[in-house]
Amino acid sequence: MINDNSDNIVVSSRVRLARNVKGLPFPQKLSDAGAVSYLVNAAVHAADFEHELYFMSDLHEVERQALVERHLISPDLAGKDSGALLLSDDESIAVMINEEDHFRAQCIKSGFALQECYNAIERYDDSLSKVIPVAYDSEFGYLTACLTNVGTGMRASVMVFLPAMTFTDMIDNFLLIAKNNGLTFRGVYGEGSKPIGCLYQLSNARSIGLSEQQIIDNVSKSVSEMCASEQGLRRQLLSREKNELTDKAYRAYGVLSNARILSSGEFMELVAFLKLGMAMDVIEFKDIKTLDKLIIDAQPANLVKIAKSYSLDAGQRDLVRAALVRQVLKELK
Amino acid sequence: MINDNSDNIVVSSRVRLARNVKGLPFPQKLSDAGAVSYLVNAAVHAADFEHELYFMSDLHEVERQALVERHLISPDLAGKDSGALLLSDDESIAVMINEEDHFRAQCIKSGFALQECYNAIERYDDSLSKVIPVAYDSEFGYLTACLTNVGTGMRASVMVFLPAMTFTDMIDNFLLIAKNNGLTFRGVYGEGSKPIGCLYQLSNARSIGLSEQQIIDNVSKSVSEMCASEQGLRRQLLSREKNELTDKAYRAYGVLSNARILSSGEFMELVAFLKLGMAMDVIEFKDIKTLDKLIIDAQPANLVKIAKSYSLDAGQRDLVRAALVRQVLKELK
To answer: Tens digits of per-residue pLDDT, B184-235?
Structure first.
């Protein structure tokens, strides 16, 4: 298994657990403000880390969307005034309260770190289970609002950067292999979202019939295989088309560091070429972490937050995005 | 009339005179080596400036083509082993010997300088007429191999950079106006060549029935009108699409200063955007002269000469061109 991130394939890892309170209706049927209050208090009590609490009803639409873009809440929670978020100060642990389930606690870390994520979120879950009576069935396991989560209530997912598979049009074949290995594939922004910038989310398709550790191990194994294939394809690209790759990476750098108008789609496409060039060591820049942070910051709502103006339209955002990208790339090493 | 080049529309001016020796067959019928020798001696004798003499038969095909790209000889002369070139050290005066006519003497200067070119080449012509008996008819004027040159034997031409007319698709209308004013239009590399990089050559269509000064004045007047229209269109573009123009100019800079593979066509297209951005003062760079020199240096044969390798194929030239362009743009101010 590949544990370092030197090949820049696994961008981030995430494990989330869905939990519900025994005897309390699932959120869809839960309109009682007192009950929500109870959930919030429980989530806070279980936390042994520094954190902030956000009530969706207190947040501007843009702030909610910015949390979605940073993968800290789901679009569903963003649309739900009775929802709340408990967020650790380092943003590694995020507990969505009153989303589809009473609690959805996730740990997200950069690089290939599913085991670490699982260990961290299991610790929170232990703590939570001492505060609330958890809805658990000895036969089915944890009970959840949607059947696909019953069992472990766990989703272990990695976001992978697969430019070689994408540019050689072999990505669909590899996604099919992953599917046969029990994985499911989504775009960067969850179910139904399209892959952009050669970024794909892979996670376990089933959460029942396997132990938590088995799920972690299965996903890790499949992702490792995917990484090996991507590395092989990258080596082939490098030996056959080094000039073209170098050219594409530097052109991407040239446009990103000079454009005055930059749409989100073009930005993601160019960043993918630049990151591929970095990962394959054909260009002088190395700092992929800066680009991964920029990918988040350049999303519409985060951009609007950075610009401190909630009234930007799409055309104005393209100007602000271009300015931000130029500024960040100027410092790229 | 606009005499400075602050608006960067007129790239260069050129006046050439076609002359023949009375009693000697035109070059097409002239196979006698002794006669060619006589022409060469006459051309040299008439020169009161520092110069070099080049016999086509001594030059590699690439060197001939490089002279064509630098607008110092015609493709016809490049293909003719019995031809020669007398070139002043500053390259402003070039006398093609034994091309279509016995002598075709040109003066080329940067910017809008037809009168200066005419004065300089008239001086050489006076000198030449003292060395040879010139083929001249009191009714028709100077006699030339092709009827279109009979009369003054003169062609006064300017190379103009018309990006605003080109990008607004109004260029054809303006070229028609120029035609109605007695001008003819060619691409950058003479008759039949296509316009590239928004560059156009305009010159007098007729060389008979007008005096030399009238031809100079007519071409100057038409070109001045064209410059005024181009300036008007540029102002309109600037007021309506400043962000888009700035974006295009900087993107062109970004690609030119970063690409590793650059075809001649893409290079010319990007340079046009960059020059337009400079001319309209929307980007920080000002040095158009450097780009105009680069346009010549980046042409295939000149590139091959610079790379000092005559065996470069088109693919290799695209790498060498990209490297040259990066190097030059690094120093752009």
So the answer is: 998 776 555 667 889 999 999 999 999 999 999 999 999 999 999 999 999 9
As for the ipTM of the complex, it is: 0.83
Question: What are A197's two structure tokens?
Answer: 């910038």
Q: How far is B245 from chain A (nearest CA, A)?
A: 9
Q: Nearest-5° angle of CA B325, CA B330, CA B333? A: 110
Query: Could you give the CA distance from residue A29 to residue A40 in angstroms, rounded to a whole number?
Result: 17
For residues A57 and A81, the answer to whether their CB atoms sit within 8 Å is yes
Q: Residue type for B214, please?
A: Q
- Helix ranges (DSSP H) in chain A: 33-46, 61-69, 75-78, 114-131, 163-167, 171-180, 212-256, 264-279, 288-297, 300-307, 314-330
| CB half-sphere exposure, B200, CA atoms < 13 A | 22
With CA atoms as reference, the chain B residue closest to A244 would be B261
Complete edge-to-edge strand list for the sheet that includes strand A183-186: A51-55, A84-88, A93-97, A103-110, A10-19, A154-161, A199-204, A183-186
CA distance A308 to chain B (A): 21
Q: Angle of helix A212-256 relative to helix A114-131, nearest 10 degrees?
A: 120
Nearest-angstrom CA–CA distance, A238 and A325 = 27
Farthest CA pair distance, chain B: 64
If interface means Cβ-Cβ distance under 8 Å, which residues of chain B face chain A?
Answer: 243-244, 246-247, 250-251, 253-261, 319, 322
- Using an 8 Å CB-CB cutoff, list chain B residues near A247: 259-261, 322
Residue B298 counted as domain residue: yes
Residue ranges of alpha helices (H) inside chain B are 33-46, 61-69, 75-78, 114-131, 163-167, 171-180, 212-256, 264-279, 288-297, 300-307, 314-330
List pLDDT tens digits, range B91-110: 999 999 999 999 999 999 99
| Contact (CB, 8 A) for A308 and A324 | no
Domain encompassing residue B323: 240-332
Distance CA B273, CA B318 (A): 20
d(CA A44, CA A327): 38
Q: What are phi and psi of A330, to 5 degrees?
A: -60, -30
In 3D space, the residue among A9, A12, A32, A182 whose CA is nearest the CA of residue A109 turns out to be A12
Q: Which two tokens stand for residue B95?
A: 């006398």
Tokens of A173: 């074949």
d(CA B198, CA B211): 31
Total domains in chain A come to: 1
Structure tokens at B290: 């450097």
Distance between CA atoms of residues A183 and A215, nearest Å: 10
**Rounded CA separation A255/B152 (Å):** 51
Specify if A247 maps to a domain. Answer: yes
- Residue A270: inside a domain: yes
Within-domain flag for A82: no
